Inverse folding.
């Protein structure tokens, strides 16, 4: 739960969150899509950062209802939240303060930010795992992150580059079996061809959740990557 200090103009953590139907989860773990002033997706932020921008009037909530884009500043979003808490509480994640409950927005828009989003997906372990769905690209089984490793298809010892097309997720067993060889040398076969994602693989995973489907229309025509922070 968050607290709100009107004099300081900020929201701060108070206690754990529980929604009105007893499903215990943290609303603070939700993500919020950030648009620039021209409604172009630029990044994904956590709930604390989103509310911080709303309270300081750096951003506004963009809510899609009946196919229309509706914009709310922080105070008007509190009023909307009061209505939604009464009539459709199960359709939102909720932050509770001492004085009120506020729905976690899915999308916010920066009021004066015009910069364009990043066009490159960050080449890092998180995005590689997300691209491959935490699935070993040799045996095809899905594993927890701590049971996976990054394998170079053409080993670095043989001049293999550090690129999207030459790295895949591999379980520890398959990685050991392959060793410092190419798949053909190890008599192993990849289950798919690795490619560079057009947008953040982590973002694509979130779009599979119903709570984030409202992001889709802002991303359908985007060839850029939304930066995760």
């Amino acid at each position: 739960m968050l607290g709100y200090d009107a004099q300081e103009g900020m929201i701060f953590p108070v206690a754990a969150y529980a929604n009105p139907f007893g499903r215990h989860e943290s609303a603070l773990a939700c993500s919020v899509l950030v648009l620039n002033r021209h409604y172009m997706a630029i990044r994904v932020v956590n709930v604390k950062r989103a509310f911080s921008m709303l309270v300081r009037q750096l951003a506004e909530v963009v809510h899609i209802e009946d196919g229309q884009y509706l914009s709310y500043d922080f105070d008007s979003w509190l009023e909307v939240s009061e209505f939604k808490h009464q009539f459709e509480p199960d359709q939102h994640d909720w932050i509770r303060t001492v004085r009120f409950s506020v729905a976690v927005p899915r999308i916010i828009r920066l009021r004066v930010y015009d910069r364009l989003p990043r066009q490159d997906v960050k080449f890092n372990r998180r995005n590689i795992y997300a691209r491959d769905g935490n699935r070993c690209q040799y045996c095809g089984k899905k594993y927890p992150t701590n049971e996976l490793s990054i394998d170079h298809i053409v080993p670095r010892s043989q001049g293999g580059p550090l690129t999207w097309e030459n790295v895949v997720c591999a379980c520890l067993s398959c990685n050991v079996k392959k060793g410092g060889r190419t798949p053909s040398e190890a008599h192993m076969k990849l289950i798919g061809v690795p490619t560079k994602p057009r947008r953040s693989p982590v973002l694509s995973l979130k779009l599979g959740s119903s709570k984030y489907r409202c992001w889709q229309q802002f991303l359908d025509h985007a060839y850029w990557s939304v930066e995760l922070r």
User: Anything to note?
Assistant: Helices lie at 47-55, 74-87, 125-131, 172-178, 201-206, 216-219. The first helix runs from residue 47 to 55. The chain has two domains: 2-118+201-228, 125-178.
